[in-house]
Write a structure and sequence with these properties.
Layout lengths: L1 E4 L8 H8 L12 E6 L5 E4 L3 E4 L11 E13 L3 E13 L3 E9 L5 E5 L3 E3 L6 E12 L6 E9 L10 E12 L1
Parallel strand pairs: 2-12
Antiparallel strand pairs: 1-4, 3-5, 4-5, 5-6, 6-10, 7-8, 7-9, 7-11, 11-12
Length: 179
């Protein structure tokens, strides 16, 4: 599977993610995440993630519209070495085929959820960005770990053709405080 991430791939939480996403339907692999380093300090700031992508269009039998891309914009408050105040996150999707955005989770450093939101709807397959802003307003502890995580689940729409490409996966966005 051709996958591209503009920052380091992250493996933490893959087993948990697979268990949560298990629905009996075909499963796509988890998409490597984006880690953004954010400077310790007070005051509101905005952090833009890199783009992540699931592209199945190069697989044998998949049509050229078998892809989905994502990125996010974090709005943060105070950042310390032990916690990050997450005011909101705006998650963007763009897809080649009508797809569906599912659950959203914000995880503290120990990978337990501090916030979640149930399915938010369709992503039209018209290659334009669709976004949803989630007001979170939580102080998220790092629990001695280096990052906190936002998981955005989706289902890439079936494209038909000789191979019925698509399936469920997730984009992962992480924040890491630095001095």
């Amino acid at each position: 599977m051709k996958r591209r991430a503009l920052s380091a791939a992250l493996a933490a939480g893959t087993a948990t993610l697979a268990m949560v996403m298990s629905t009996g339907a075909a499963q796509a692999e988890d998409i490597p995440g984006v880690v953004n380093k954010v400077t310790v300090g007070s005051g509101t700031r905005t952090v833009y993630t890199g783009h992540t992508e699931l592209d199945q269009s190069t697989l044998s039998g998949c049509l050229s519209n078998a892809w989905i891309q994502g990125h996010a914009t974090w709005t943060l408050g105070n950042v310390t070495k032990t916690s990050i105040v997450v005011k909101s996150i705006q998650v963007f999707y763009r897809a080649g085929v009508t797809s569906y955005v599912g659950e959203q989770y914000l995880l503290r450093g120990n990978n337990s959820s501090v916030w979640s939101k149930v399915a938010s709807g369709d992503v039209p397959g018209d290659t334009r960005d669709r976004s949803e802003t989630y007001a979170i307003n939580k102080t998220v502890p790092l629990d001695g770990k280096s990052t906190i995580t936002f998981w955005s689940y989706f289902s890439l729409g079936r494209t038909g053709g000789p191979a019925d490409c698509g399936g469920q996966s997730t984009f992962t966005y992480k924040l890491q405080p630095v001095s």
